[in-house]
Amino acid sequence: MLPTDVLPRRDRRLQRFLFRGARSMVIGLFIAGILTLVYHHNFWPTLIYSLCIALGCWFFIDSGRVAVAGWVHRKQPEHGAYGQWPGWIWMILIIPIGTVIGYTCGNALGNWITGYDNQGIVDLRGHGDKLPVSRIYAHLFKAM
Question: What is the pTM of this model?
Answer without folding.
Answer: 0.75
